[in-house]
Automatic annotation (TrEMBL):
Keyword Membrane: yes
Superkingdom in the source lineage: Bacteria
Major localisation: membrane
Protein name per Swiss-Prot or TrEMBL: FtsW/RodA/SpoVE family cell cycle protein
């Protein structure tokens, strides 16, 4: 007795998309800022804020649009990135609105500019534009590997963006830093977008040159020293960061670019010597520029002696006010809407917005905020580890590293750990360029994570298998 059976190909079991998990987390990401908004209204006026419903619906709509686009165009993406960015953006909107209610800041604006213009409506508009760019990235960037084709174009684009603030009539000098351009009545910070473009260049370049950069000519004190001709790339990036610091007096952007390159270089080559060289060169460059650049000298003096009479009389008391805000917040804070961080002045809702969180939410609140940032970086690094192509790995680690470095230099400057850099806290601080650029950054990370987490397609059935006969007795 015999029987004939046809073999069949069993497809791989699909990994869960986790979109429902993302939707549940997004609900919390909207509810938490909404409760914070209610808390501020009760603290300031003793009643529910009149814009509570509009704020909740607006934030929920933005989050819902982002979720629908991710579900349709990146269904296997990391489920945490979008909720984490949403909750940070929402809390930033609440604190910006809370500072708009300060009579001290309103009177200061009227005295200096003749009128007061609230910042929260603009920040909500910037957030909507950021979500729109996030949607555009996911719809039109169907494969992150397409960006590899534009490696050297990205380098030119980054240089153009960095040089725009130096163009006469276009650049804008604000508080001694030339990092803004004025277009149609709006101030744009090109460096925020340049960090994404230059990460594309670094990823494409290092993917091709990593083998040559990993070679070592000699060993000195336990470190593998790279060959002399391979030092060229790091010297060029070091020189570019120094030029940014000299001509634009922008310590934050120079640290961001050089630090991002060194991190990506270490990941590409696995040579600890690059980290050592990078730290030494950044220290030499920073010290060298600080010796003759007055703007950088003032920031270093304010960092070393924030309570000195010379610093306080020179209108550089923001660091001192920030430290006192953190101190008065204690462990649990004074409560949202009940602090005095508006004494910092106009920078209270931008450079020093973390001081408001420190005073009104205390050490516990600041640690929660930093934990949210840490989770974004962790998910970005996890995406880099899961990426199947070297370009995706380097791009994900570069974007995550840039995000982490920006959080460090801003938080460190506000807390007095390092000199103030003038950069803004991602998603929290007031500023259109920062919010829009960081939403684009999250969009690219989501696209890479979708490609990394998407299960491989099942192999095509073999026609010869259909002709196979298995004879059984």
């Amino acid at each position: 007795m015999s029987s004939t059976t046809h073999t069949s190909t069993i497809g791989a079991i699909g990994a869960p998309s986790r979109r429902n998990t993302e939707l549940a987390l997004l609900a919390f990401a909207v509810v938490i800022p909404l409760f914070a908004y209610i808390n501020v209204g009760l603290a300031l006026d003793g009643e529910l804020p009149s814009g509570m419903l509009g704020y909740g619906m607006g934030l929920g709509l933005l989050a819902g649009v982002g979720h629908i686009v991710v579900r349709k165009f990146a269904s296997y993406a990391d489920p945490l990135l979008l909720p984490l960015a949403t909750v940070l953006n929402g809390l930033g909107l609440v604190v910006v609105w809370r500072l708009d209610q300060s009579e001290r800041l309103q009177n200061l604006a009227k005295a200096q500019f003749g009128a007061f213009s609230p910042s929260a409506p603009n920040q909500l508009m910037y957030s909507a534009i950021g979500i729109a760019l996030f949607v555009v990235v996911l719809i039109f960037l169907k494969d992150h590997r397409v960006l590899q084709r534009y490696t050297y174009i990205s380098m030119v684009g980054a240089l153009v963006l960095l040089l725009l603030p130096l163009v006469p009539g276009l650049g804008k000098d604000i508080y001694g830093a030339k990092i803004w351009i004025s277009v149609g009545g709006f101030s744009i910070q090109p460096g925020e977008f340049a960090k994404i473009v230059i990460a594309v260049f670094f990823a494409g370049y290092l993917m091709v040159k990593r083998d040559a950069l990993a070679l070592a000519s000699r060993r000195f004190m336990g470190l593998y020293l790279p060959r002399g001709r391979d030092l060229g790339p790091i010297i060029v990036v070091w020189a570019m960061s120094i030029l940014i610091l000299v001509f634009e007096t922008d310590l934050g952007t120079s640290l961001l670019f050089f630090g991002m390159f060194v991190v990506m270089l270490y990941v590409a080559t696995e040579r600890t010597s690059w980290i050592v060289f990078g730290l030494l060169m950044s220290a030499v460059g920073a010290v060298g520029v600080a010796t003759f650049e007055p703007h950088v000298q003032k920031r270093v003096d304010a960092w070393l002696n924030p309570f000195s009479e010379a610093v306080l009389q020179g209108n550089s008391d923001q660091i001192a006010q920030s430290l006192m805000a953190f101190g008065s917040g204690g462990v649990l804070g004074t409560g949202l809407g009940q602090g005095h961080s508006d004494l910092i002045g106009f920078a209270a809702n931008s450079d020093f917005i973390l001081a408001t969180f420190g005073e009104e939410m205390g050490l516990a609140g600041v640690m929660a905020i930093l934990l949210l940032y840490g989770l974004i970086v962790e998910r970005g690094v996890r995406t880099a580890l899961a990426a199947r192509d070297p370009f995706g790995k380097l791009l994900a680690i570069g974007l995550s590293g840039a995000f982490a470095i920006q959080v460090f230099v801003v938080a460190g400057g506000v807390m007095g750990l390092i000199p103030l850099t003038g950069m803004t806290m991602p998603f929290l601080a007031y500023g259109g360029s920062s919010v829009i650029a960081n939403w684009a950054l999250v969009g690219i990370l989501i696209r890479i994570s979708d490609t990394a987490r998407r299960p491989a397609p099942a192999p095509a059935p073999n026609p010869d298998a259909e002709m196979t006969q298995v004879v059984r007795p």
